Amino acid sequence: MKKLLMPLLLVSLIVVSGFTFAKGNTPNPVSKIQNFELIEENLLIGLSTENAGLQSSSAYMLGEFKSEKSVIPLMRMLRNNEDPHMRIMAALALYKIGDSRGIWAVKQAARFDDNECVRKKCDQFFSVYTLENAVE
Questions:
Q1: For the chain, domain boundaries
Q2: Mean pLDDT of 77-103
Q3: Which of 21, 58, 87, 113 could join 109 in a cystine, given CB atoms 3.0 to 4.6 angstroms apart?
Q4: CA quadruple 26, 27, 29, 30: dihedral positive or negative?
């Protein structure tokens, strides 16, 4: 738990400081987009590190931001990562993003992943996604 807490705090601090210390008093949509792109790029780099805590928190934040750029790297993480907890985090992020490619990967993981816990969580994510989108 301590290993996950420090990288999550670091990422949160970077995100908050990016918004707090932005230049100018008036909001500028272009600067917000540039900040978002920089944040998104840093989180994508965090996905490719060997630090499990940073990788997990980056995946979570990319899901919160609904980052379309992260769908393929998250699908790779879901399929190839050896740690079942990391695969679950990737599935959660893909579910939150809601891209059809990512949802398909979650569905496939629910059927074919080697770990029973990963299969169950992916099945839950896929079921909730299906229910949410059937109502709309």
A1: 2-135
A2: 98
A3: 113
A4: positive
Which residue's structure tokens are 């496939």? 108
Tokens 């909730």: give the residue: 128
Burial class, 29, CB count within 10 angstroms (exposed 0-12 / middle 13-18 / buried 19+) = exposed
d(CA 7, CA 16): 14
Instruction: Kindly report the pTM of this predicted structure.
Output: 0.76
Compute CA 124 distance to the chain's CA centroid, rounded to the nearest angstrom.
17
Q: Which fold has domain 2-135?
A: Leucine-rich Repeat Variant (1.25.10)
> pLDDT tens digit string along 114-123?
999 999 999 9
